[in-house]
Specification:
Length: 193
């Protein structure tokens, strides 16, 4: 049983390390390009907006936090255009607001999230539910026009937020790696006895 647990721990650690190494090989300029390991890419504009909507909370979320949440939800970094269009549309519809450099849910956005987000549903299902609701909010005149509803995020801001996210992710990874390294040593010592 211990051997099986050690093997499973090794597999989990391997994939965590592999994901970070693959991710780090891409230069910062490539942020926003879809990595090959993207879990379930949003296929429509409403799914993309739902994905970004899920990344904004009642407490202020920086661009770095939105990128981090997006990576957690979909194992992918949103592109600059995805962020500009999604945040712009959500701001226009009054579901989020901007306070300084942070985004947070409005009362309307918070009510929508509370009504649609069920913690017992997988994230993909939740995104589909939210996407369906957002689709009903899009009337024929309010289709997403990337020229008129863009949030003003520059490539430099995106790069900076992405770099900060990567730095934080590496820091967390190093802590986790050290924790598992000690656990692995302790289990190996016990099995040698």
């Amino acid at each position: 049983m211990e051997t099986l647990l050690l093997a499973l721990s090794g597999v989990v650690i391997f994939f965590a390390i592999y994901r970070i190494i693959v991710s780090v090989r891409h230069p910062i300029e490539s942020c926003g390009k879809v990595p090959f390991f993207r879990a379930s890419p949003p296929s429509t504009k409403s799914q993309t907006i739902a994905w970004i909507f899920m990344c904004v909370h009642d407490k202020p979320s920086t661009l770095q936090k939105i990128i981090s949440n997006a990576d957690y939800i979909d194992r992918a970094i949103p592109s600059l255009e995805e962020l500009q269009v999604s945040l712009g549309w959500l701001l226009t519809k009054g579901l989020i607001r901007k306070d300084g450099g942070c985004y947070l849910l409005t009362e309307t956005g918070s009510q929508l999230r509370s009504r649609l987000w069920n913690i017992n549903h997988p994230l993909r299902e939740t995104r589909s539910i939210i996407s369906g609701e957002l689709r009903t909010m899009m009337d024929s005149q309010a289709t997403i026009d990337s020229r008129t509803s863009l949030e003003n995020i520059t490539q430099e801001e995106m790069n900076s937020a992405y770099k900060a996210y990567k730095t934080e992710a590496w820091s967390v990874f190093e802590k986790v790696r050290e924790k598992y390294k000690d656990d692995f040593k302790n289990k190996k010592e016990k099995s040698d006895v």
